[in-house]
Amino acid sequence: MKYLLGIDCGTSGTKTVLFDERGNAVSSASASYPLYQPQNGYAEQDAADWKSAMLETVAQVIAKSGIDSAAICGIGLSGQMHGLVMLGSDGNVLRKAIIWCDQRTGRQVEKMNALAGDKIAQISANPALTGWTAAKILWVKDNEPHIFEKCRHILLPKDYLRYVLTGELAAEVSDASGMQLLDVKNRCWSGELCSLLGIDKGLLAPVYESCEVTGRVTRQAAELTGLKEGTIVVGGAGDNAAAALGTGVCRQGKAFTTIGTSGVVFAHTDKPLIDPKGRIHTCCAAVPDSWHVMGVTQAAGLSLKWFRDNFCGAEKEAAAQLGIDEYELMNREAESVPIGSERLLYLPYLMGERTPHLDAYARGVFFGLSALHTKKHMLRAVMEGVAFSLRDCVEIFRQTGVDISDMAACGGGAASPLWRSMLADLYGCEVKTVANKEGPALGAAILASVGAGIYSGVEQACDALVKPDKVCAPDSDRAGEYEKYYQLYTKLYPSMKESFAELAAL
Predict the structure, then answer these.
(1) Looking at CB atoms within 10 Å, which of 85, 257, 264, 279 has the fewest?
(2) Cα separation of 446 and 464, whole Å?
(3) Does 239 qualify as catalytic in the annotation?
């Protein structure tokens, strides 16, 4: 039996999963790490935490499985996109990584638009965005010149882990698409954009297709993890592109929704599509010569986690006594509240927003709160607000002619039958899950299987390794109720936009 290793560097933690060549999870391990927010709107993590989490979980997975690591044919990497890792000439990290949900770069986005104008969207397929990597590079250049002057290499989070494993500096097209320095149509770094923005192209690592071999495990990494020296490591993919493969989204017409820390609606396409209004994002897919479009809400699962951490201490205690997950109790409480949470709406803009409102100043709102409402109402309103935000993404897809009739669901939020039901009713189509819940880690392993020669292509690997599971169908009566609240939801942001900006200026 041959085996494959998928490593997913997420925002809340890193998960490593060992799969057999049929896509069955053999063993897994996770390790968490903190998020640092030194100021409002800032978000950073320590790359050393990612490194430790990867080394620790890989060693645990191999030990738990009992297999000879020589049977591991390939390793795939997945990770949170847009993060900025800066290395000095000695290969050491120069500062904490500024990660995807950081919103400090408003002035740098203005600067990008002044320097490059329409070229940004024409070449990178997306308008200048606060959360993406180019703006972060410019922020360091403007605010920490002593750090920028020492920088010799710029990597994304998962690509730093590749460097730890292989000693190789490499990037791949799906994750690199989120840096705003890649020519997305031609799948290569854009010398023109780098020149316009004043970023040395030489700081960027060579870019590969996601299933290409980018390096091999070094002796040092092998000693630290139990891996066999020389094991191949493929390009891998950004978390959403990897999750797409893990749910079988690898052909035109297929789409998925993920509710992780952020929320994403993602659709595969055979050609690069650019929304002229910049409401959805276009990136290279992890499938060669393919692309994907996606809408993103910044605080999907993060909204529910924030609510849990601050208001659900009793649920945590009860769940511990019952030996179940606290989210299961929270779901039960939310189910006891009617659709619309008795006229309570939630805007999930805890970290600003991306789709459809490119607004770093947007913030979370409970609208309609009254003495009638309890914690259970607020809980359901949070879940509904996230679902409404994801429906916003679907509406834009439909306006641009993207097919979203074949919809899968993944991420931690997809484990909730209530959340899946909300999505089916709001989308007006079936929402299905797959048997393997490993998502990005499985997608990374799928790419490794192609790099190792087990399968001839990414589509063939997905067909063999991804198996369907539950299907949730929409209900017309519930859908009608949700629609009334959704229509009101869409009116709230426009009426508050100026107030959000005024609040940020105080």
Answers:
(1) 279
(2) 10
(3) yes
* Beta-strand runs (E) in 395-442: 406-410, 431-434
Q: What are the phi and psi torsion angles at 253 (to 5°)? A: 95, -10
Which among 239, 359, 392, 425 is annotated as catalytic?
Answer: 239
Confidence class for position 174, pLDDT limits 50, 70, 90: very high
Question: pLDDT-based confidence at 505, cuts 50/70/90?
Answer: very high
Rounded distance between C-alpha atoms, residue 218 and residue 64, angstroms: 22
How far, in Å, CA of 258 to CA of 247, rounded? 10
Output the pLDDT for position 405: 80
- Could you tell me the sign of the dihedral formed by the alpha carbons of 160, 161, 163, 169, in that order? negative
Whether pLDDT at 281 is above 80: yes
Exposed/middle/buried for 381, CB within 10 Å: 0-12, 13-18, 19+?
Answer: buried
For tokens 């789409």, name the residue: 255
Per-residue pLDDT tens digits for 184-199: 999 999 999 999 999 9
Q: Are 6 and 452 in contact (CB under 8 A)?
A: no
Element (H, E) at 468: strand 468-472
Q: Which two tokens stand for residue 94?
A: 């120069």
Cα angle, residue 47 at apex, residues 261 and 437 outer, rounded to 5°: 35
**When comparing pLDDT for 397 and 142, which is higher?**
142
pTM of the full structure? 0.84
Residue 70: how many CB atoms within 10 A of its CB? Answer: 12
Distance CA 406, CA 403 (A): 8
Cα 127 to the chain's mean position, in Å?
19
Three-class secondary structure of residue 504 per DSSP? helix
E strand segments, 373-421? 406-410
With 0-12 CB in 10 A as exposed, 13-18 as middle and 19+ as buried, what is 443?
buried
Residues 6+ apart with CB under 8 A from 380: 333, 334, 337, 341
Specify whether the CB–CB gap between 19 and 26 falls below 8 A: yes
User: Which token pair is 231?
Assistant: 């094991």
